[in-house]
Description:
The protein is mainly alpha-helical. It has helices spanning 25-58, 61-97, 104-126, 136-167, 173-185, 190-198, 205-208, 219-229.
Amino acid sequence: MSSEHWSTTPFTLQTIPEKPEGVPQDFYGCAVAMALIHNLFTRGLNSIYKHAPIVAERGSEQDKSDFINFALAWYEALHAHHTGEEKWYFPEIEQAAGNPGLMQANIDQHEVFRAPLDAFNDYFLSINEDPAALNSAHVLSLVDAFATPLFEHLKDEIPTLLEFGKKFPDVPIKQIDEDHAKKMLDTVSKLYFLPFFVSNFDREVDGGRWTSFMPGPPGWVLTATKYVFSFPYRGAWRFSACTFDMKLKPTMVQI
Length: 255
């Protein structure tokens, strides 16, 4: 189902890698989790790209307001992901490997799409109080401006991480990953980040094969997200690819 789902285009989901020979299990697990996270960002952006013309043309003011908040949540989640990498994940990997500058190529890739990505966020912030101003052609042009370098970066990160596992097998990558995730979560808007993350994560992808690598948040976090954190922007999550049970929605929003 996942390969044919409406949230898999126009931007292609990443194929979850098989474990290469010589890569420690912890590095492989982190690479799988990263690919799964990248795919929830991809599903979210695909939803924005597909829903924008529909909402702009036929949506009510409330539909447009909800869509704007969904787009802002997508940016918040992706921005937090990349900021967390730059502030904690990459530096800690470099320090553990004893190799300053090891992750510089990844940071350089961030710089390529940073400005057009920020322009996307700025646009939605600018119309947040005037939803009727939503212009779908402009939204698509903003996405097109950063999509190619963004997806090149997301694609490159996975083999890069696996290769580092071969070269620096003693780096405690699992602990580094967990530590940076906790620090990153302290910086985000829980009302945007958590509902977006949970409702665009397909737990059943590839028949649930990857659940052991990334089972999703603890049960209490899921419950709090579904009934508390999601409530202020509850209409926005209509545009998510999944339910709060992390199962794919069969159809797009009907307007």
